[in-house]
Amino acid sequence: MRNYIKLFSIFLFAGLAFTACETTDLDLQISPNDLAADQADPNLLLNSIQLAYGSNQQILHDNADDLTRIGYFNNRDYFAGLPGNTLNGVWSRVYSSGTNLAGEITSTVGILTNLQAIESINAESETDYSFHEGVAKTLYAHSLFQLVDFLGDAAFSQAGNATEFPAPALDSGADVYAGALALLDEAETLLAADPAPVGATDLFYDEDTSKWVKLINTLRLRTYFLTGNTAGFNAVIADDNFISDTDDDFQFQYGTSALQPDNRHPDYIDGYTPSGNGEEYRSNWLMNQMLVNDDPRRFYYFYRQQDATPGADAPADEETLVCSFVVPPPHYDGFIYCSVPEGYWGRSHGNDEGGPPDNFLTAAPGVYPAAGKFDDSAFGVVGLGVGGGGAGIEPLMLASYVDFWRGAMATSDTEKAAFLRAGMEKSIAKVQSFGSLDGGADLSTEPDEDAVTDFIDGVIDSYNAATGDDKENIFAEQFWVTLYGGATESYNYYRKTGFPTTLAPNWEPDPGSFPRTFLLPENEVINNSSLTQRTDLSTQVFWDTNPAGPAFPAAN
C-alpha cells in the first residue's frame, strides 16, 4: 500500500477535488498543457495521466459490476439505463484536454495529450524521462484496450492530431488492440532499462520499474485471453514475469482526508456519512451467493446495519422495502427477488423503486476494498470517520485475477481446479488483511484458518464433482466474488464465455438484450462530424464472437 502522506501530497499538489457520481473526479484542475512544451513539467504531466487513469478505472468498474450483478444496476431497461453520456468523462480523459458541449476547453486533462507532451520533452531534453514515458504509454495502452472493450471501436490512428484530423475517425477494435500491444512493447523497452524516476511520483508502484514490466506482461495476458491467443498467453506465462504474487498487485491507494482534497475511497465517501449509507445498494445476487456458500469474504465486503431483512427473516415493511410485500414474478423463480436474510439488505438487478428512508438499515460497503467497517455482527450504524476511514484501494490488476485467467485457459479440469484454488487463496488472504484497518472492530470474530480452508476445499470439491455448465458456473461465480471492487474484467469474461449462467435476471421480464457495448460518448458524437450515434447496445467487440442477443448471454 502507498504511504498516505505521499498520496495526500500529490492530491493536494494537483489541486484535486473528489465528487460523487461520475463519482470521484481525480482530474487536475490546472492543466500543465497550458504551458509551452519546453516549459511543461514532466512530473506534473505524469501526475495528471495517473490521476485521469485512476478516475476512469473507478467509473469503468462501477459500470461493469452493475451489469454483471457484482454491483446493483438501477434500471429496468438496459438502453435507458446506459445513456450516451455514460462514458463522456472516460473518453475525454483518455484523449484530450476536454471540451464541453459549447466546444470550450474544460479542466479535464487527457492521457494522450500529456503522453505526447512527455514524448516531446523526452526527445528534446538532455534529461532522460524514459520512466515517465514508459509509465504513460502503459496506462494509455490499457485505456485503449478498455475503450474497445466498452465501445467496440476507438480513436487511434487519427487521435491526438487535431491539425490534420480535427474529426478523428474510429479504428476497428482489432486495429486498436494491435496498436495498444505495440505501445506496450515500446513501454517495456523504455522501462526494462530501469530508468531513474527523475522526481516522478508513482502512485502505483513507488517508482519500481520491474513491477511496471510485470504489469505490462499482465496486460498482455488479459488481452491474449480475450482474443484467444493461446500461444501468446503461454509465451508470457513461460517467461514468468507477470503479476503472480499479491505484493505486485496493481491498485490505486486512497487516503483518509475528508478535507479538500477529499482522497477517501469513493464508496466510503458516499457510504459513511452523518446521514448514514448513501452509497448505492449492494447486490442481492452477490450477497445471497456469498451467504449461501458461507464465503468468509462477506464480512469484509459488506457491513450490515441490521440483523434481519424485511420479507426474509423480519416482517415485510412497505415503508422501507416495498418489494418485501410482493409475490416474485415467474421469471424470478429460483432467485432471490427482494430480501436476502440476516441483514444483507440490498436490491436486485434492475430494481428501480424509489429511495425510502433506509440509510441506517441497508448493507453498507465494508472494510474491503473501501476501508469501511468490518462486519463483526455488532449491527451498529455507519457514520463519518468510522471503520478504516476510507483508506482503501481501487483494485486494478491483482494476482488472483491472473489465476482465474490461467484457469480459464487451462487444458484440463485438474489444472483448472488448481488455479481456482490459487485464485481463491490469494483473494481471501488479501481481503482478510484489510480487517485491521477497522480499529474499532472485534476481530476475534474473523473467520479463522480452519473456516477458510473448509470453504475453499468445499468449493473445489463441488467443482470436481460438477460437470458441464455447472462446473463452469462454479468457476465463474468465484471469479465474480474475487473481482468485487474492481469488476471491469467481469464484463469482458461474461461476454466472452457466457458464464456464470446463474446470475439473477433483470427486475423487468423484458429489459432488452444484454449490452454488448455502450453508446458512443455523446460529447464526441456532437463535436465530431465523422461519428454517428448508435441506436442500440448490440454492437459486439471483435473478440466477442458469440451469438447476438437476446439469446446470448443466457442469464439476462
Note the main attributes of this structure:
single chain; 556 residues; mainly alpha; two-stranded antiparallel ribbon; 18 helices
- Beta strand count: 4
**What strand order characterises the main sheet?**
1-4
Mean pLDDT: 92
Alpha-beta classification: mainly alpha
Determine the strand fraction and express it as a percent band: under 5%
Measured on Cα atoms, how large is the radius of gyration? 23 Å
Molecular shape: globular
Main sheet overview:
2 strands, antiparallel
Number of helices: 18
First-to-last CA distance: 38 Å
Q: What proportion of the residues is helical, as a percent range? A: 40-55%
List the secondary-structure elements in sequence, H or E. Answer: HHHHHHHHHEHHHEEEHHHHHH
Which residues sit in consecutive blocks of at least 5 with pLDDT less than 50?
Answer: 1-38, 98-107
Structural description of this entry:
This protein has 556 residues and is an all-alpha fold. The chain is 42% helix and 2% strand. It contains 18 helices and 4 strands. The strands form 2 sheets. The chain has a two-stranded antiparallel ribbon. α2 packs parallel to α6 (130-151).
Could you give the topology of this structure?
Layout: H1 4-14, H2 42-67, H3 78-81, H4 88-95, H5 111-124, H6 130-151, H7 173-192, H8 209-227, H9 230-239, E1 250-253, H10 266-271, H11 284-292, H12 298-301, E2 302-303, E3 364-365, E4 393-397, H13 399-409, H14 413-432, H15 449-465, H16 468-482, H17 488-497, H18 522-527
